[in-house]
Amino acid sequence: xxxxxxxxxxxxxxxxxxxxxxxxxxxxxxxxxxxxxxxxxxxxxxxxxxxxxxxxxxxxxxxxxxxxxxxxxxxxxxxxxxxxxxxxxxxxxxxxxxxxxxxxxxxxxxxxxxxxxxxxxxxxxxxxxxxxxxxxxxxxxxxxxxxxxxxxxxxxxxxxxxxxxxxxxxxxxx
Length: 174
Known about the structure:
mainly alpha
């Protein structure tokens, strides 16, 4: 078992050396570049505007939720203060009404989160679609054999970084 494992490891190592040797010969002929996708997308004017729009929507939702939460808190305080003077039936009725408001608050909160997530997703899909088109056109125009996303590799020479050029093209392609 150990001999098989050692032999297998040796064969894998030899294969890797052979592949590395071949790929280094081929790499001299290849034109390769890379792009930091996250940086490229987040640096565009369109993305920044979209994030401002999302923040405005979020702020509006948060404000509406705060108003309702403050109202619920005030009603809870009022109910506690008046609880001794109320009949049990009236107290139960007010508690049910308060519970309904809490449910409404939770629903509104969840709806707001879902709406914001959906809007962010739409924005991301549109940005990625444009990004892919721009990258493909850029690669063809500049005769690249391979354009890769930055997080895929451990090291790359910065001279192959095409991120700044892609940001300019994305901003220009609105």
